[in-house]
From TrEMBL:
Species lineage: Eukaryota, Metazoa, Chordata, Craniata, Vertebrata
Keyword Transmembrane: yes
UniProt keyword annotations, A-Z: Membrane, Signal, Transmembrane, Transmembrane helix
Superkingdom per UniProt: Eukaryota
Domain Ig-like: 54-137
Signal peptide feature range: 1-25
TM region(s), chain numbering: 181-202
SUPFAM superfamilies referenced in this protein's UniProt entry, alphabetically: Immunoglobulin
Name of this chain's protein: Ig-like domain-containing protein
InterPro entries according to UniProt: Ig-like_dom (IPR007110), Ig-like_dom_sf (IPR036179), SPACA6 (IPR034549)
Alphabetical GO biological process terms: fusion of sperm to egg plasma membrane involved in single fertilization
Amino acid sequence: MLPSLWLVFFFNLFSNIFLSQNVLCQCFMHSSGFQSAGAVYNCVTCQYDSCEFPLDCPGMDINATENSRTQMWCEVPFLLPEDIQVIWRVAEVKTQQVDQFKEVTAGVDRLYSIPSTSLQHQGTYQCEIFSGQRSIVRLYFYLTVTPEVSSGHTELQEIFDLSLLPGGRLLPDPGASACCVLLSLPLLLTACLTALFLLLFLSLG
């Protein structure tokens, strides 16, 4: 009977030692809110170390047309502490390398808005949420800006009008003779037809 008790004692002892060396509690974001108690068990100090790194969320692609309004929301699917601070940063390329971002605004507003989007606004936008000195989460937005088509049509039309007619004039001079007016009619008709075909080609393309 006595040997059996010793066997049970040593079995429990070694089991506890094994478990103490392999306890690992992953920090996590729960749907009920940010878990500040999330930590990793340190077997050397027999203490729980708090999570030091923020949660990086996957990037979101955003497509915008030039001169339109663009809005980005720094929203997460879990509750946040009340004392948060939001920092918005931007990088000129598509990346998640933190050293390539420049800070553009800091405060409590989780909305970043661009009233009139231009080609210079294209790039990656990062929002980072802090609670005190602790970083909770980072979100990334990849903004692609498409040039406005109508402005390109207008510029091409102006260039075409100025290049086809002598001196950039659509009509002959008021003091010109009837003969000169008749001679300029085929040229004017050619210019009108060319401009018409150009507009038709641009509308189909």
